[in-house]
Amino acid sequence: MVQLIKTILLSGYKSHELGIWDQKHPGIFIIKNAIEQQLRTLIDEGLQWVIIGGQPGIELWGAEVVFSLKEEFPDLKLGVLMPFLEQEKNWKEERQEHYKSIIEQADFAQAVSKKPYIGPWQFKARDEFSLDNTEALLLVYDEEKEGSPKFLKEAADKRTKKGDYPIFIVSMYDLQVAAEELQDKERSDW
Fold first, then answer.
1. Engineered SS bond to 17: which of 13, 71, 75, 111, CB 3.0-4.6 Å?
2. Angstrom distance (rounded) from CA 79 to CA 7
3. pLDDT, tens digit, 9 for 90 and up, residues 80-102
4. Which of 140, 78, 138, 130 is nearest to 109 (CA)?
C-alpha cells in the first residue's frame, strides 16, 4: 500500500554551501523550480504541510515556493520549526528581513528550544522533533557534496530502515537537468 504523505520536511544546503551570497543569484530560480516540481507531485498525492527549519538557503527558498503554490493550492500550509529562539540574530540585515517575512507568512512558526542558541545539540533536537512530526523528507542534497544536510539525512536514513519514512532527494544532477530544461524552454519561447 502506498503511504499518503500529508506532512513533509523540506531541507537542504545553506546558501553559502552552494556559493550563493545574494537573492539575485540565477541558481536560486533553478533550485526553486526543482523544489516546485517535487512539491507539485506530492500535492497531487495529498500533501498538506511543508515543514522547514528556517535556515537561509534551500529552506527559505522552499518557503517561497510554498507561498507561490498556495495561490493555486490554498489548503497547502507552511510550518517553520526553528531550532532555538532568535536564530537569525547574527545574520546580515538582508537575510534577517527575508527570514522575518517568511515567518510572518507561515501558517505555523515556533522554536523547538525555548531559549536562544546554547549549543549544536539544539539543531539535532530540532531535526529529531521535525522527523517525528512529518511523514517524509524532501532534501536537496548530493552524497558527493557533503554539507550540513548530511546530519539530517543520516537521521532520516535510520527511520527509513526502521519503517516507512520516504526520502525524496533533489541531487546536483537533478538541478543540472532542471537548468537544462529551463534553458530549452527559454530557447523554444524565442
1. 13
2. 10
3. 999 999 999 999 999 999 999 99
4. 78
Work out the angle at residue 70's Cα, subtended by the Cα atoms of residues 33 and 140, and round it to the nearest 5 degrees. Answer: 35
Q: Which residue has the cell 527511520?
A: 159
What's the pTM value of the predicted model, to 2 decimals? Answer: 0.94
Closest CA to 59 of 77, 82, 89, 93: 82
* One-letter identity of residue 43: I
Q: What digits encode the pLDDT tens for the residues 148-174? A: 999 999 999 999 998 889 999 999 999
Give residues with Cβ within 8 angstroms of 71, minimum separation 6.
none
- Cα distances from 1 to residues 4, 5, 7, 142, in angstroms, run 9, 12, 18, 29
- Nearest Cα to 32, choosing from 63, 8, 54? 63
Q: How many CA atoms lie within 13 A of 99 on its CB side?
A: 21
Measured CA to CA, the distance from residue 91 to residue 114 in angstroms comes to: 19
Length, in residues, of the chain: 190
